[in-house]
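Researcher: I'd like a candidate sequence for this fold, 67 residues long. If you have to choose between options at a position, lean toward the conservative one.
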């Protein structure tokens, strides 16, 4: 009998990084988000002016209540 996998749901968060922010500062910020908030990197976009937009995601865990 095959187990049916439920679709995974994610919560997303957008973080904007200014172009003046150094690579080490950005890495520290994203590392803290990953460690303490359980976020993972989903997507990164670099804008025309050098600003960066980062999308973070984390799984939504649904708890089923049974009576």
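Model: Candidate sequence:
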């Amino acid at each position: 009998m095959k187990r049916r996998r439920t679709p995974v749901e994610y919560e997303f968060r957008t973080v904007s990084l200014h172009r003046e922010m150094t690579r080490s500062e950005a890495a520290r910020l994203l590392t803290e988000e990953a460690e303490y908030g359980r976020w993972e990197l989903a997507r990164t976009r670099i804008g025309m002016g050098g600003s960066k937009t980062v999308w973070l995601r984390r799984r939504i865990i649904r708890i089923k209540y049974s009576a």
